[in-house]
Amino acid sequence: MALSLLLAAFTIIFLAYNIYQKLRFRLPPGPRPWPVVGNLYDIKPVRFRCFEEWAKTYGPILSVWFGPTLNVIVSTSELAKQVLKDKDPQLADRHRSPSAAKFSRGGKDLIWADYGPHYVKVRKLCTLELFSQKRLEALRPIREDEVTSMVESIYKDCTNPDNKGKALELRKYLGAVAFNNITRLAFGKRFVNSDGAIDEQGLEFKAIIANGNKIGASLGMAMHIPWLQWMFPYLGNELTKHEARRGRLTKAIMEEHSLACRRTGDAKHHFVAALFTLRDQFELSEDTIIGLLWDMIIAGMDTTAISVEWAMAELIKNPRVQQKAQEELDRIIGPDRLMTESNFPNLPYLQCVAKEALRLHPPTPLMLPHRANANVKIGGYDVPKDSSVNVNVWAIGRDPSVWKSPLDFRPERFIEEDVDMKGHDFRLLPFGAGRRVCPGAQLAINLVTSMLGHLLHHFTWAPSNGLRPEEIDMEEAPGQVTYMRTQLLAVPEPRLPSHLYKRVAVDM
Predict the structure, then answer these.
(1) Is residue 270 very low, low, confident or very high in pLDDT (cuts 50, 70, 90)?
(2) Residues in binding site for heme
(3) Which of 82, 84, 165, 437 sees the fewest Cβ atoms within 10 Å?
(4) Which secondary-structure segment (H or E) carries 456?
């Protein structure tokens, strides 16, 4: 009885608030919200596709209610420019879910921090120090080590007599590169030995990531409807235990690093070393150091593997493009040496392949939500203070009004017109734009391009036996980042001398 009365009260409050908002503001159109839950029950699992479908009915700017919170979704480059440039100062804050608030310790990191003195300070640290061209170049041997390790693993597996002609699960190899690269960049540690065995800290690291994903998924309604959080008290306990577990592991690794530095006196280039060196200059708290390290891990681990898997799926579906990229590699690199990042300027078509994959398959198809710190107007509609604003990057990358034949995988479009993808051209936004643009964009571009270049230079790729290229499943799995719904299975055929399939290991 009490619960029924409580729900009835919440319904009345929600309806009254909704009517008040509609009378006071000219909100963007959208599907009719239900009491209490808003549009949560109407949203299909692959949200960015759902929002694109709704945009065809209601227009390119939508009102979508997540419980009592208004989310404004924009789906064109013109509206994205208004959000990310024209009204950027009013829309640069973050909406933090309960899990994001807990894991960022109230926004003391970079990703979930509101725009203000802390964000400006930490952003400056990332731009001038952590992701500077000098540091990216210093860390290049780690990236090339991990990419050549991937090539060696694929070569061993595909030349094994038991596997001859069999398709491989490409995601396994891509994920290993992403995991080893980001943990070495962040912590200066490789948790996996040369035989592929993962150590105790590595197992704990992976378990923490898996548990974080599990908690995020279990929050469900409680994440969007604060009124219902009292019904899930155990989730608060789980968040607290998870955050403490994550902190313990990070502090243990940081302490190991500190002891090693004192013992050897070596200056390292990876991020934990940089943060220790710069903590006094930038007045960094322990919470901020831990938050920044995990920002880099969460942002950098899945996204590179996702981008390369989608790109390889497109290359297998489009053998003409695969062959053209290999012809460029053969002409510039040749059959007797390895490609390195220094070769990128001479490989324009390869760079266009990476860019075209990021246009069609941005790893984060909906930008993380911006929060309005004041009432603003977007596209002629009101966006009230504290509303969330999302940019549908996936829809913009497929907009026929700005892209010719938008569903075709055609890298040549970027030779015909050089389109910036680091936040200056609002038609292509895989890394965002404005005050919240991803500071690690160049690092991600370098790694994705390197992985693609090595995969194409070392192997010719065909679909799984019995599958025609056009039958590859190109649907997305639900989630904030977009893995392929069905893992890509592909048959590699080596195309270089056997001595070029060895890992180029480096200890740093």
Answers:
(1) confident
(2) 438
(3) 165
(4) helix 441-458
Provide the token pair at 329.
Answer: 């590699």
Residues 340-380: pLDDT tens digits? 999 999 999 999 999 999 999 999 999 999 999 999 999 99
Burial class, 232, CB count within 10 angstroms (exposed 0-12 / middle 13-18 / buried 19+)? middle
Other CB atoms within a 10 A radius of the CB of residue 294 amount to: 21
Q: Which residue, among 361, 357, 346, has the nearest Cα to 321 in the 3D structure?
A: 357
Give buried/exposed letters for 334-365 (b at 16+ CB in 10 A, else e): eeeebbbbebbeebebbbbbbbbbbbbbbbbb
Give me the domains of the chain, ranges plus CATH numbers. Answer: 2-501 (1.10.630.10)
Answer yes or no: are the C-beta atoms of 79 and 378 closer than 8 Å.
Answer: yes
Smallest CA-to-CA distance from 295 within 159, 108, 461 is with: 108
Q: Positive or negative CA dihedral for 266, 268, 272, 277?
A: positive
Residue holding tokens 């509303």? 387
The single-letter code of the amino acid at 418 is D
State how far the Cα of 264 lies from the Cα of 275, in Å rounded to an integer.
18
Rounded Cα distance, 398 and 406, in Å? 5
- In this prediction the pTM is 0.92
Asked if the model's pLDDT at residue 218 lies above 60, the reply is: no
C-alpha span between 481 and 94 (Å, rounded): 18
- The Cα-based distances of 229 to 2, 13, 211, 220 in angstroms read 17, 17, 20, 10
Identify the band that residue 444 occupies on the pLDDT scale cut at 50, 70 and 90: very high
Backbone phi and psi for residue 288, each to the nearest 5 degrees, phi listed first: -70, -40
Q: What is the dihedral angle through the alpha carbons of 88, 363, 369, 183, rounded to the nearest 10 degrees?
A: -100
The annotated binding site is made up of 438
Q: At residue 334, what is the residue type?
A: G
